[in-house]
Protein 1
Amino acid sequence: MVGGSTGAGKSTLVNALVGHPVTRSGAIRPTTRQPILLHHPQDADWFTSNRVLPTLSRVHGELVKANTPASRAGAAPDAGAMTSLVLVADQAVPQGVAILDAPDVDSISDDNRQLAGQLLAAADLWLFVTTANRYADAVPWKLLLDAASRDITVAIILDRVPPGAEQEIADDLHAMLNREGLAGAQLFVVPEATLNQLGMLPPESVQPINAWLANISEDATGRAEIVRRTLNGTVRSLSERLTVLAKAVQDQHDAGNQLGEDVQAAFADAATRIGQSTSDGTLLRGEVLARWQDFVGTGEFFRALKAILAASATGSGRSSRASRHPQSRLNQPLKPGCRRSSLIKPPAQPRTQISAGGQIPPAASSWGSMTSQGSPQISRQKWPQRSGPGKVKCWRSSVLKAQPNAPKPAGCPSASTGSGSSS
């Protein structure tokens, strides 16, 4: 496989290796969108089946006519044709070796990069093309390091090297290959040259590469060794990756178990805390009481209670004129021996307590409702009469009606004086 960076001159190099234009080259990037596989006619059976690159459909191509420039050779760039592989039989290709022109490994197109990675993974021998300006780029070196881990045979082609800088750049690239474990990689330098009218490189610029490929094609044992090394390296790399994958799966499993234990522990701790709070009353004294205060202070209960108290304050249970006209009773003179009762004062806002059961006792200002239940003692407790030295205690006529046999203090009128009168 001939692969490398964008604009490195891969297609131009492939045309130079076979001696005539077979694949399109040009300034448009990316130029190669559809991979082209060049093979000897007698090796066609190796590639017509789906044993090699099974995900790509096969398209049989033809050699271009003579004197066709490289800019019009091969298939035009078409992103929709990337799922097919063009097979071109050419006598110029050594028997036993197939040359594959692949898309760019660092193309702006995601599909181009994925296809290039797939083709690199299927190749036994790499012709990796880079330039004097880009031989230290990160993307090509990532692929080269992957090839080193799989023990793939790699040949580095340093293309477009300026005259006079061949040795300097070659020495620096050799040092980098040695540091990265690719000391055995072949290195070919293709100097910068002017293309002819067909867009072809001079034949002498690629002659060392042709000689090396011809040597491989003639050595069946050497080709088998290359294939064996690639296969063993791939299996070994796969084993190492499976080990890493298994460790990652185990780590995820352990992390899931730990998360489950943490959740169970959190729920158990919460259940223990809730049990303690409900057993000693902390929960009821805290959150529930706070919510009850909110309900009493702002809910329907408070508004209903306020309405009841307002109704009691207006004297709805009294029928006397004194309750309806308290100021008029204050101006009347007292009878001898009696003191003005506090009951005829302008009624203040009654204070009512709520029992533990939530019931509201009758309003203290409603005397009629109290006496109807037969509880004059409650009336006397709620409304104590004023007394002092030399004064008598007067009862209201409604109380006397409830207990007619009760002794009456001297100077107080009888019950027949009329309801609502008081002294």
Protein 2
Amino acid sequence: MNGAEREGAPAGTAPEALEEQMTAWRKPTKQRIRLLDGLRGFSLVSMIIYHAMYDLVVLFGVRAAWYFELPGYLWQQSICWVFILVSGASLHYGRHPVRRGLLVFGCGLLLTVVTALAMPEQAIYFGVLHFLGLAMVLAGFGQKLLRRVPAVLGLILSFAVFLFTKGVPRGFVGVGDVALLQLPAALYGTPFLFWLGFPGPAFTSADYFPLIPWLFLFLAGYFGWGLLMPRLKTGAPGRNPLEWMGRHSLLIYMLHQPVIYGVLMGLAAMGVF
């Protein structure tokens, strides 16, 4: 507001002043790292298409053998890697990582309840939202310690441990998906350690991201971004659709599957497939 408005502007200027104020409210003012928003949005688009393909193949019987082979696996891995790395990088900017983590974890629990009731055979018991929420909480509590670790050392160690433990949910350690040492079967004999990375014999989940190994990829994103931060500047949020999606990723994630399923049901009713 200018001086005249503070002192009491003539009645005829009120609409203009109100319009200026409304325009100011509509303008996003929070500083953002647009690259992170864009990467998150791009991964969301890829995820939506991937899940639409999953519904077509699993629920509607469309044949696509490649989806369960190497191409589909690489596609799925690219989505989750980007999400997790970006989430780790974003830890540098969040003011309340523990609070945010609890919110994300709560959304994961909501998905568990909904999927267990609506489609028990596709229930999600520890998916990417459960993992990201818990990772944010743990990293939030340990942020002071993480800041003491040199970024280069942290990146090398966390990524190395991620590769070494990537096979833990499948019973081994090694180099990525190549097994070098089988782990004791007793670790997988309890139904209570699935969240850590040791699923019991009866455990199933349509989406599964345990702390081991994925926490180490999350930390690799944190330390890797620490190396890039001196070269980056914050700015006002962009109007790029991908960046917009990246800023609203949690809401889109929660809503995308019901929307996809509804659209596919409509197309199936029309005889499209």
